[in-house]
Amino acid sequence: MRKLNSDISVRHLEYFITSAEHGSFRKAAAILCVQESSVSRRIRDVEDQIGASLFVRHPGGINLTVAGQRFLRRARQALDHICDGAAEVAAIGRAEGGYLKVGLFSSLSSGFLAELFQKYDARYGTVHVDFAEGEAHSHIAAICQFQLDVAFVIGISDWEACDTAYLWSERVLVALPEDHVLTGMAELTWKHIRDERFIIRDTAAASRIRDYLVRRIREVGCEPRIEPQRVGRYKLLKFVASGRGLTLVLESEGLIKIPGVTFRPLGGEFLDFYAVWSPRNDNPAFLTLLSLARTIARSVAVPRLEKTDEPTSEPSQIRGPSR
Question: What pLDDT was estimated at residue 95?
């Protein structure tokens, strides 16, 4: 890296540029609201630093030398960069600009996250937001490496390097073919679906979902039938429409319109969502997002039954249906 041995400051550049543009130390001093001697002295300091004369002095004013003409172009570029950088940092500090990287599991189409980012965009529309869909373990790794600012995940685990905050809960829905006999019921229980075949996504999170299904269906006296499929969420719902099996979705995903699919709530089943972030993250755009998320969470807060501060590896905390 090149080492600069110079005492040239931004003020020096301002004095030089103003003098060059007006052809006079006197006029430059009047514009800068300083003494003419102060301008002349600072210009001489610059000339001493770079070892070349920048102006030819004469009774009528000053003219740039060849060296001065070249230095003027560089000085303007340097000052522009400094001003642009200061404006950018100031905008980020006000969260009026900058970048935000967000990890998602839930859908943005409706629910808490839809409201959060609609309000955030309305207030901080110049912040560029990048979304990354994935599983909790990959989001946490990215947060620890500052590749994500925040992730919204289901449940909490032993993430010692991260801070977490509970934000909202969603009901668990059963996705059924629209001609299924159970669509005639307003709400389902595990007993209603214990003999059904389930299809789930073949992803890292699927093992948690599979364990969840196995445990709950065994509790009602049956051995579950589960088929992992290497497809995305929308394709999985199309499989449901074709009669290949049932699947579980979040309440925010229940508004997804897939021909041949209908949704029914699973009584008493809720999933808790948390924000996860690094306590060392001081990105102002993230801090304003977290503050807004907490404000929205307080406005829609409802009593949470069986609340616990202990980490859990389960994909949900089971609570009663009173909401």
Answer: 53
Cβ neighbour number for residue 16 with a 10 Å cutoff:
27
Task: Give me the domains of the chain, ranges plus CATH numbers.
Answer: 10-93 (1.10.10.10), 99-299 (3.40.190.290)
Is 292 in a helix, a strand, or coil?
helix
Cβ-based neighbours of 166, under 8 Å, separated by 6 or more: 272, 273, 274, 297, 304
The whole-number pLDDT of residue 237 equals 93
Q: Evaluate the CA torsion angle 298, 300, 306, 308 in order and state its sign.
A: negative
Predicted TM-score (pTM) above 0.70? no
For the stretch 239-248, what's the b/e string if a residue is b when 16 or more beta carbons lie within 10 angstroms of its beta carbon?
bbbeebbbbb
What's the rounded Cα separation, in Å, for the pair 44 and 52?
Answer: 10
Give start and end residues of each alpha helix (H) in 124-247: 136-144, 190-193, 206-219, 233-241
The enclosing H or E element of 74 equals: helix 66-93
How many Cα neighbours within 13 Å face the side chain of 49?
Answer: 15
Mean per-residue pLDDT pooled into runs of 10, the chain (323 residues): 59 91 92 91 90 91 92 89 70 66 76 92 91 86 93 83 92 95 96 95 74 91 92 89 93 83 94 93 92 90 43 38 33
With b for 16 or more beta-carbon neighbours within 10 A and e for fewer, the 286-314 pattern comes to bebbbebbeebbeeeeeeeeeeeeeeeee
Q: Read off the amino acid at residue 99.
A: Y
Cβ neighbours of residue 275 closer than 8 Å, sequence gap 6 or more: 150, 151, 152, 164, 165, 167, 290, 293
Q: How many CA atoms lie within 13 A of 76 on its CB side?
A: 10
